[in-house]
Automatic annotation (TrEMBL):
GO terms for molecular function: GTP binding. It comes from the Bacteria. GO terms for biological process: Mo-molybdopterin cofactor biosynthetic process. Pathway: Cofactor biosynthesis; molybdopterin biosynthesis. The lineage of its organism: Bacteria, Pseudomonadati, Pseudomonadota, Gammaproteobacteria, Oceanospirillales. InterPro entries: MoaB (IPR012245), MoaB/Mog-like_dom_sf (IPR036425), MoaB/Mog_dom (IPR001453), MoaB_proteobac (IPR013484). This is Molybdenum cofactor biosynthesis protein B. Keywords: GTP-binding, Molybdenum cofactor biosynthesis, Nucleotide-binding. Pfam families: MoCF_biosynth (PF00994).
Length: 174
């Protein structure tokens, strides 16, 4: 699929929350992402919460990247500078290709909301095995910003001039 489709194409999305303090009962960031992807017409196919641990993160992400049923992974948490924040270190080595523009654009749009504090975000994205991965801060507001201003459009087959849907549909252009 080299051009944006005129029809909406629902995607299978997994949500991973990285936190030492959140639980399934109080994971507001994960809840927001699940709500947004559902409202957009996509399907939630997996959701889990792991501690800030490089190897737990890699284990879950690697399994999802290898699963042909999962096309997109949304990761919230672990992107700051605290000692336990290890999401970039854990997941960047798994990427076949980084999506440099995601982190850059996230910090740019966040500047209007949180000022120079945006410099403390290590949001990142990448593609691995035709799976698109977006890693964003654990703040619920940051997840809303990421989805509403960037991710939602890039996962919509109707968005022009380009989007990631053709890539994640197995057999799409690499």
């Amino acid at each position: 699929m080299s051009q944006a489709s005129t029809d909406f194409v629902p995607l299978n999305i997994a949500v991973l929350t990285v936190s030492d303090t959140r639980t399934a009962e109080n994971d507001t960031s994960g809840d927001l992402l699940v709500q947004r992807l559902g409202e957009a017409g996509h399907a939630l196919v997996a959701r889990t919460l792991v501690r800030d641990d490089v190897y737990q993160l890699r284990a879950v992400a690697s399994a999802w990247i290898a699963d042909p049923a999962i096309q997109v992974v949304l990761v919230t948490g672990g992107t700051g500078f605290a000692g336990r924040d290890v999401t970039p270190e854990a997941l960047a080595p798994l990427f076949d290709k980084p999506i440099e523009g995601f982190g850059e654009l996230f910090r740019q749009v966040s500047l209007a909301e949180i000022g120079t504090s945006t410099i403390q975000s290590r949001a990142l994205g990448g593609v691995a095995n035709h799976t698109v991965i977006f890693c964003m801060p654990g703040s619920t507001n940051a997840c809303a910003t990421a989805w509403d201003r960037i991710i939602g459009q890039q996962l919509d087959s109707r968005h022009r001039p380009c989007n990631f849907v053709g890539l994640v549909r197995r057999g799409g252009a690499a």
